[in-house]
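Per reviewer request, we include the raw input and output of the structure prediction for the construct analysed in the revised manuscript.
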Amino acid sequence: MPTMTVNGHAMHYTEQGSGPIVVLVHGSLQDQRYWSSQMEPFAAQYRVIALSLRHYWPETWDGKGNDFTIEQHMQDVAAFIRGLNAGPVRLIGHSRGGHIAFRLAAAYPELLHQLVLAEPGGELDATLGGTAPLGAQAAVFAKAAALIGAGQVEEGLRGFAEHTGGPGAWEKRPEPRRQVARDNAMTLLGQINEQRKPYGRAAAEAIRTQTLLVQGANTQPQFKAIIAAMLPILPGARMVEVANASHGMSLENPRDFNAAVLAFFAQG
């Protein structure tokens, strides 16, 4: 498996195809394998690179240290893109990876040609119409991490899955998807102190990259609220809804997800 050393850390990735570059950033409890249904279809037109963020599989991590933050992962992805020496890229981020992609687009617009935010995870502050008390999401992370740290891995993963996918989400997932979560379970200990800021209007207005927002038709309300808040703020943003899918829309309905993203890319 190839690696690129960024910020003193070996970042693992997989790639396929040739042409303009598409970089894929996974979410919580995932890794580069999350994008298996996108690699071949996208590679017909693009050089597609799926990353495993710092401390995710294939790394083995004990959940200790102070280098598992949104800022660190954002800086790692930015350094990786610079290391490609190929100019601005098309960037896709899902869930926590969408949050990282959002922050990168605001901080380093010169690195991006187009941006796809697939149900970016996080919370809204009052400037974007957020009404729920901030910190509710962190409490879910902390509860799941406490169970995992105590050796109750399945229970912790089940609770996290239900936060993103609703009741029964863990049992409904195919076994390979559950195993990827087990492989990355210790990263939830890092998320307790990941220092994720809520989305605010100023940060959204700072993004100038052509952006596609993607949501699953059957997803949880908190993800739809984030997309609804961002859609009128991000300049020129458009939104597409993937039928018969929830938060993991690129796995649950890859045909429609891939078609929507490739159509967006073709317009840029």
